[in-house]
Amino acid sequence: MRTYQIEILNPKAVKLLQDLADLELISMRQTDDNLQTVIKRLREKASANPPSIEEITKEVEMERAERYGAKKR
User: Fold this and answer.
1) Which of 55, 61, 62, 71 is disulfide-compatible with 51, CB 3.0–4.6 A?
2) DSSP states of 27-48 as a string?
3) Residue 7 and residue 31: Cα distance in Å, rounded?
4) Rounded to an integer, what distance in angstroms lies between the CA atom of residue 30 and that of residue 20?
5) Cα–Cα distance, 66 to 60 (Å, whole number)
6) How confident is the model at residue 50 (pLDDT cuts 50, 70, 90)?
7) Where is pLDDT greater, at 33 or 58?
8) Which of the 8 DSSP states describes residue 49?
9) C-alpha span between 54 and 58 (Å, rounded)
10) For residues 54, 39, 5 and 1, what is the CA-based torsion angle, rounded to 10 degrees?
11) Rounded to an integer, what distance in angstroms lies between the CA atom of residue 65 and that of residue 19?
12) Per-residue model confidence (pLDDT) at position 41
């Protein structure tokens, strides 16, 4: 399943989206989250158990090995 955030420019689009939801082709939910709210929530979650520098380094090295290791072979 993919999730998209859309901005409705024309009120007629709401009717089209609602028709698709009625056909159970999509599901809709309205959120009032803006970027600042989302960032604040993520920071609050991260502050409870922040990763150590060793954990960050290990993750970066694993990602680099995965991305660039195959190209060097």
Assistant:
1) 55
2) --------HHHHHHHHHHHHHH
3) 11
4) 15
5) 10
6) confident
7) 58
8) S
9) 6
10) 30
11) 47
12) 85
